[in-house]
Amino acid sequence: MFEQIILGIIQGITEWLPVSSEGLVILAKTNLFHGFGNIEEAIRQALFLHLGTFLAALIYFHRDVIKLIETIFSYKSRSQETQKLFSFLLIATIISGALGLLLIKTLSYIASQLESQGTIITVIVGCLLLGTAFLELKAKKSGYREIRDLNIVDSILLGVVQGFAALPGLSRSGLTVSVLLLRKLDKTYALKLSFLMSLPIVLAGNLALNFNTLAWSVETLAGLFASFIFGLATIHLLLKIAAKINFGYFVLLFGILTIVSAVI
């Protein structure tokens, strides 16, 4: 139970920062505890802990979520901004869900053919952290577009980016916020949009990957509860910090250290 609580705390705190909470959970599990059977199992467990921060984000953004749910039944009567947001989330979720599932299966197959899975997982996460760092450092804070300016290109591009974030080490929030900034969205809107994007894909991902395979127990529920409590307690503060600080250099250093630790 202690192990699950620690992993839940890591997820709850790091979800709101562009540092790949999934990658950090997998690294902690692989190197501090007894590890996973394979990389797909690692991703499944990390995704399950995302349910805790999913609930925290659902509470934090509840006004936006209620508005979006209502839009399902009254699309034509909604404002242009709400219509654009709803269409964006729908298209992006479909694309990212299909691509993410394909990438997880592919990565799991490749890793299963190799020996020393713990080392392989650590190296993969480290390399993907470097990719996240590069994109975060490239993105600029300034932008002039708002949610009402979203278009089909944004939907497709962000769907693809979020799909790749299924790979551990690629920060979902880091990638999506960075790409939104590169698309000239104002950073205030980019952060909000990134976490609204996470809600449907985390729920859909758990239904697809964990619904029939997850072994519910006191231990797994303890991890989920820790993720929720720490996520809810830190979301407001850490989102403000993430809006002001570029974590790219931190992610770059952490990625390098992760790779070095695996090969020495």
Tally of DSSP helical segments: 11
Low confidence ranges: none
Q: What kind of sheet is the major sheet? A: none
Radius of gyration: 18 Å
Beta percentage is under 5%
What spatial form do the alpha-carbon principal axes imply? globular
Q: Can you walk me through this structure?
A:
The protein has 264 residues and is mostly helical. The protein has one domain. Helices cover 77% and strands 0% of the residues. It is built from 11 helices and no strands.
Task: Describe this structure in a few short sentences.
With about 260 residues, the chain is an all-alpha fold. It is built from eleven helices and no strands.
Which terms would index this structure?
264 residues; mainly alpha; 11 helices; globular
Task: List the SSEs and their pairings.
Layout: H1 2-14, H2 21-32, H3 39-60, H4 62-73, H5 80-112, H6 117-138, H7 152-164, H8 172-182, H9 187-209, H10 218-244, H11 248-263
